Amino acid sequence: MAPKPPPKPPPPPPPKNVFERFGNFLDSDQGKKRTTMLVLLFFILAVVMTILYQIELKKNQQHLEAVASVRQFALTYDPSLHGKSDMEILAAVHLLTLHLLNWTLKNEELQNELKILTELLPGWQAFEKNLYYFSDVRKTWHAAREDCLARHTADLVIGKYGEEQGFINEMVTKNKHDYWLGLYKKDNITDDLIWINGDIPKEK
Predict the structure, then answer these.
(1) What is the tens place of the pLDDT at every residue in 37-53?
(2) Which of 30, 38, 135, 186 has its CA 20 to 30 A from that of 46?
């Protein structure tokens, strides 16, 4: 009698799908450690992203406030800008800034030139864009004016106000001397006064 063939081995279990293998991995000690690290990493990333978002939001708010301030200034300075977009107003303000910068540079250049002139012309005093000569020689009004006209097309000082008037008052006090102004009587009939350039004095 022939021997029986050996029994066939049991078929291999069907392969686990991806979800089952992932679940088994999570249940393992190694999977739990890695999962904890990933959760912690995502938490840190979320905190960092939140902080960055708040910083960017604050910057944007500051930018909007700055634009609003510039817009308010521009509309106050130039009402014709009403109805213009923010970009148009910013362009206008930028142009104005360039003009002011150019004016400042020219003013500084003029101040330097005035400083050189006062050094070359003894007795002259510079204030802002003008030169003043305070003479110690007593003369009549007409003689004083003729002396001024003979000095580089100068003339008696006329209606100055604000800081320039303060400068003149300071020099008068410092020199302890009276000076003629470019002010004279319009005619011999009335007591009306007029500046030598034709302007009427402001009433105080």
Answers:
(1) 777 777 787 777 877 77
(2) 30
Distance CA 196, CA 204 (A): 19
pLDDT for 143 equals 92
Q: Is 181 in a helix, a strand, or coil?
A: coil
Which helix (DSSP H) or strand (DSSP E) does residue 127 occupy? Answer: strand 124-127
Which amino acid, 111?
Q
Q: What angle (nearest 5°) sits at the alpha carbon of residue 107, between those of residues 101 and 180? A: 150
Beta bridge partner(s), residue 185 = 193
Euclidean distance between CA atoms 135 and 76, whole angstroms: 45
Do 164 and 119 form a contact (C-beta atoms < 8 A)? no
Q: Which is it for strands 124-127 and 183-185: parallel, antiparallel or unpaired?
A: unpaired
| Amino acid identity, position 149 | L
Tokens of residue 35, six digits? 């999962």
**CA nearest 184: which of 203, 172, 201?**
201
109-144 tens-digit pLDDT? 777 777 777 666 777 888 877 888 888 888 999 999
Phi, psi at residue 193, to the nearest 5°?
A: -105, 155
| Identity of the amino acid at 143 | A
Residue 113 to residues 117, 120, 150, 154, 204: CA-CA distances in angstroms? 6, 11, 22, 17, 35
- Identity of the residue numbered 139: K
